[in-house]
Amino acid sequence: MSSVVRPKIAIIGAGVVGLSTALHLIQKVTSAVVHIFADKFSPHTTSDVSAGFWQPYLLGDTPMELQRKWSKDTYQHMMEVAHYPDAHETGVQMLSGYTVFKDEVEDPFWKDTVLGFRHMTSQELAQYSGQSHGWFFTTFGAECRYYLPWLAKRLKAGGVKIFERKIDSIKELGSDYNVVVNCAGLGAGKLAGDQSVQPIRGQVIKVKAPWIKYYFNNEDLNDIYMLPVIDSLLLGGTHQVGSWDLNPSEEDRKRIWEGCCKFIPSLKNAKIEADCVGLRPSRPSVRVEREVLYSGSKPVMVVHNYGHGGAGVTLHWGCAKDAVSLIQECLQELDESTASKY
């Protein structure tokens, strides 16, 4: 029998990374007592601003083998979620559409992960002036204002307790928990003493355009895209590194609106609902690893899972799987350390 009969795990962060890590944890370590701490919850997280569109994006120097693994694990998992009996509650939907380029580019590393990847035909490209190359494929979107509450509902049903509390130091939790998991997004850098974490500002326009059922992404311009969510359409966007400004910019709004309407003229008839801004939590590479901190002389086992940039939804389940494996390693070491004392 395990020496740590009911291990206590604290997870900091209630965005898509924190909640998915908690869910996978209770699935793999069924004896665990899991508590989540956060000062922001849906619909007020960075994840809630995201369209939740699966495509590896803004991942810096993250090793390619990890990008492949995490993105593929997540894609396969979300394809399953899209077919759950309660899929209507999840905010997850399968999406097909176009990514276009002015000039020919290499195929992406994930082309064999998605469904139906192919090059666009000349007839398809003719719809988009000045574009000579493009891809068509089927992916998924996970609108987090539905997906996060659905995750939270499953967690509560599994006995996980969620607390509204701002954590200023990982050591605050060290005396009460066997392992602390840092999934605090943009706040994770401060908790980890990691000065490489910085925001990448994203601005989108939320509109009503029910006649548009496909996504569109132009890779040559600065983030011109159109992504369907459950009952709206998101037009984007920006990726402004280092900007903490949460106020919508009229200049950005004008560029996004004109850029999207250039390719999809019918958008001029769309009803504008809101301008939204979020700060993506970025670092040079995604961090999923263990660390031992000390609260006085007491060691605190920590697992970090943060720095996902513009790919939090794209990588969340794959990263959760690896984070949980690291938690299990921590618990095994605690078992061995406890056993050696007797």
**What's the rounded overall pLDDT mean?**
94
Number of distinct beta strands: 14
Rg, rounded, reads 21 Å
Termini gap: 14 Å
Shape: elongated
- The unreliable regions are none
Largest sheet geometry: 14 strands, mixed
Share of residues in strands: 25-35%
Instruction: Indicate the percent of residues in helices.
Output: 25-40%
Q: Count of DSSP helices?
A: 9
Based on secondary structure, the structural category is alpha/beta
Helix/strand order, N-terminal first: EHEHHEEHEHEHEHEEEEEHEEH
Key words describing this protein structure:
alpha/beta; 14-stranded mixed beta sheet; about 30% helix; single chain
Provide a quick synopsis of the model:
The chain has helices at 16-28, 46-49, 64-81, 122-125, 144-157, 171-174, 188-192, 250-263, 312-339; strands at 8-12, 33-38, 92-101, 115-119, 133-142, 161-164, 179-182, 198-208, 215-218, 224-228, 233-236, 240-241, 271-295, 298-308. By secondary structure, it is of the alpha/beta class. The radius of gyration is 21 Å and the shape is elongated.
